[in-house]
Amino acid sequence: MSAEPEPAKPAILCLHGGGTSGAIFNIQTLRLQMELQHKFKLVFLDAPFEVPPGPGVLPVFEGLEPYLAWTKRGEKSAQRAAETTEILERAIAEQVSTTGRHFVGVMGFSEGARVGSGLLLQQEQRELEGTQKRGDGFLFGVFLMGTSPPLLPNSSSLDAVQCISIPTLHIVGAEDPWQELSRDLWHDYSEEAVAKLIEFPIGHYLPVLREDTCRVAAAILRLYEETAR
């Protein structure tokens, strides 16, 4: 009698920062993945626009072109590009069709956090409109050295949703040049009761100490356990 296949792990949609790529974000999160691999599958996407390498990318990730972004360089709009929306919708549809379930969470670094937070706001708007059943989408968001404001789809009117009420985790670097934008994403765009902030004495990169990585991983696991009930 053959053993039944193991059920698919819950998946987290991973959105890289500007001037990097899904492959680079995969490498950047290797320490975190070691702590989460028993519980989650991480799915990394590539953004649509080719741009120069982002801050701190070179020389560490030299030769890993193309470097990509979720917005066209020079654009200041908070509206999400149609090309970005297409990539996101395709990834979500593929996840649902192959596993029968939505991504449980979205994790974004820097500019990727703008995309991820926009996805959560859009989901909440759809739930208010009754076009999406509550609990059928993302259960939580993880924003690593995030920037703001959230990137929203061109066709959406999100006047009814002012803040993200889906539980979120915000990792902030006290020495990050963009730390105020990280704090804005936490303070201005997330409901205080369900938004947790953890600060480390680092710059615009992920924690490298094992104890710090474990602290982030534990917070993500706690988010999932609390929201998947």
Global outline: globular
Order of helices and strands: EHHEEEEHEHEEEHEH
Spans where pLDDT lies below 50 across 5 or more residues: none
Number of DSSP-assigned strands: 10
Main-sheet strand order equals 2-1-6-7-9-10
Portion of residues in beta strands equals: 15-25%
Mean pLDDT: 91
What level of helicity do the residues show? 25-40%
Labels describing this entry:
alpha/beta; 229 residues; two-stranded antiparallel ribbon; single chain; 6 helices; 6-stranded parallel β-sheet
List strands and helices in order, with pairings.
Elements: E1 11-15, H1 22-28, H2 30-36, E2 41-44, E3 49-50, E4 68-69, E5 79-80, H3 82-99, E6 105-109, H4 111-129, E7 140-144, E8 152-153, E9 168-173, H5 179-187, E10 195-200, H6 210-227
Helix pairs in contact: 2-6
Describe this structure as you would to a colleague.
- The protein is of the alpha/beta class.
- Helix content is 34%, strand content 17%.
- The strands form three sheets. Strands 2-1-6-7-9-10 form a six-stranded parallel β-sheet, with helices on both faces. A two-stranded antiparallel sheet has the order 3-4. It has a two-stranded parallel sheet with strand order 5-8.
- Helix 5 (179-187) links the parallel strand 9 (168-173) and strand 10 (195-200).
